[in-house]
């Protein structure tokens, strides 16, 4: 499931954002980068745990289409997206995004956009457990507003 | 055989289904009516606002065509990250 | 010059952004973070090398004032800023910024703001060498415009 | 003794100076006129648009006061990151 050099990884395994970022910075296509922006999403401590499910095949395909658009829109040198699925504990990394570009504005905007997309448009479903109770989490109005910022 | 999948909140209503669709079912809309009649647990869950429907990995609307070879996915509102 | 746990480091030594980010993520004050954003600025390949100078004492003080404002404005859990000085080669990290917050918008904006500040307002002076010629680099109009985005 | 420092492009015009300021120099403006008269290399460099001036680590303007115990820094336009 985790081929080296892949742009998009969906994995039930724990991952280390800093190891991923170090690897990404050394990709050949990132050699001319002046800016690398990374985002790491972590499970907050309010819940006892999170469970993420996805739609195998479809989820990857949709994320890839979106990421290709981001790649072109911001003329990125490279990007990397990792999304955890399965059961997670507080402080576990859930999601990691990195983008490299010659100048900083492009990398900032691309990572920000990709994250807004993953939050409200990618095919993941999140369940939270608190005090023995499990409930489905759905996108907040804020998440939908965030994504609208990117409509051209 | 069509494959019908349910994700998120909807996965609690039904396991995946392998079904021979009746010949008169031509659209997503028709499929939903048929599913609700034959699988009472799905009643009123499928048309919930915010759900998405994909046929063979393409997001579609209620008027889209379905056939007996399709993979049809019903997805409750998404939440990643 | 490099005390562990410091928020602001100005150093003539090469540094490893991913090691810094890994350390930052484990700071006690970042324990409740839902989002960590990082920016790494790298020397681009167009020049043979860069030399950065600063105003010891003053530079640190000004950056600290600005960072305290960012900390409050975005209710950050923590931030870290590293800026290289001295001689650098292409692909060397020049600058690293990380910010942690409960929700992602704050961390994105804070890192973006801090970088705009460092680019045009912090007391650094940059000389570039290309084909044996050395010249001073001054902020581009774009850098000044970027900073204006943050005026309340 | 006042300490006068030059940064960036201005550091090419003069090394740092330790100077006993004449008593009639009260402001940054007066200091610049005096420096330009006594250090010809500084002529026309100090008032360049985009320069910043700090007295004892505080950014000041041309009307600000200076005294013989101050550290005064002349800085050409900044460029970090």
Features:
heterotetramer; A: 152 residues; alpha+beta; Aldehyde Oxidoreductase, domain 3; 33% helix; globular; disordered N terminus; B: 81 residues; Ubiquitin-like (UB roll); 5 strands
Which regions of chain A are unreliable across 5 or more consecutive residues at pLDDT < 50?
1-5
Q: Determine the structural class of chain A based on helices, strands and strand pairing.
A: alpha+beta
CATH architecture of chain B: Roll
CATH class of chain B: Alpha Beta
Annotation, overall tally of beta strands of chain B = 5
Report the top-level CATH class of chain A: Alpha Beta
> How helical, in percent, are the residues of chain B?
10-25%
The profile of the biggest β sheet of chain B is: 5 strands, mixed
Which series of helices and strands of chain B comes N to C? EEHEEE
Portion of residues in beta strands of chain B equals 25-35%
Oligomer: heterotetramer
- Radius of gyration of chain A, CA atoms, in whole angstroms: 15 Å
CATH topology of chain B: Ubiquitin-like (UB roll)
Write up this protein.
The complex is a heterotetramer, with two copies of chain A (152 residues) and two copies of chain B (81 residues). Chain A has 152 residues and is α+β, with helices and mostly antiparallel strands. Chain A has a single domain, classed as Molybdopterin biosynthesis MoaE subunit (Aldehyde Oxidoreductase, domain 3), CATH 3.90.1170.40. Chain A has four helices and eight strands, in the order βαββαβββαββα. Chain A has a four-stranded mixed sheet, sandwiched between helices. In chain A, strand 7 and strand 8 form a beta hairpin. In chain A, helix 2 runs antiparallel to helix 3 and helix 3 packs across helix 4. The longest helix of chain A has 17 residues. The radius of gyration of chain A is 15 Å and the shape is globular. The N terminus of chain A is likely disordered. Chain B has 81 residues and is α+β, with helices and mostly antiparallel strands. Chain B has one domain: Ubiquitin-like (UB roll) (Roll). Chain B is 14% helix and 26% strand. Chain B has one helix and five strands, in the order ββαβββ. In chain B, strands 2-1-5-3-4 form a five-stranded mixed sheet, with no helix packed on it. In chain B, strand 3 and strand 4 form a beta hairpin. The radius of gyration of chain B is 12 Å and the shape is globular. The N and C termini of chain B lie far apart (34 Å). The interface between A and C is medium-sized, with 32 and 32 residues. Strand 2 of chain A pairs antiparallel with strand 2 of chain C, so a sheet runs across the interface.
